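Fold it.
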Amino acid sequence: QVQLVESGGGLVQTGGSLRLSCATSGGTFSTYAMGWFRQAPGKEREFVAGIRWSNRNTDYADSVQGRFTISRDNAKNTVYLQMNSLKPEDTAVYYCAARARYTTSRSWPEYDYWGQGTQVTVSS
């Protein structure tokens, strides 16, 4: 079966940086569009960033535009989320998701596979 495993979360001060990784297995990673979502306590799961298989087309939520960068390495079956200039509002569990389609989506039900999540906490 397809498995996604996130890593790289942790505690960081406001203005700091973290790099999340999502390692995949059991599927044809290079054909999947990938996305990152996050969910804070009491809030809906929200879209953060998405990337097509080609690594050329990316999509970002307005709240992270200019601060976060999504990328992928198909040879390593891994997608990354570089997070800079972190704010307390970024505190959430971050989930990696795979979609067996060419295009990304901002809607979480349209993704087929999910990781277990990794906690990101930004202290003020």
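The longest strand covers residues 18-25.
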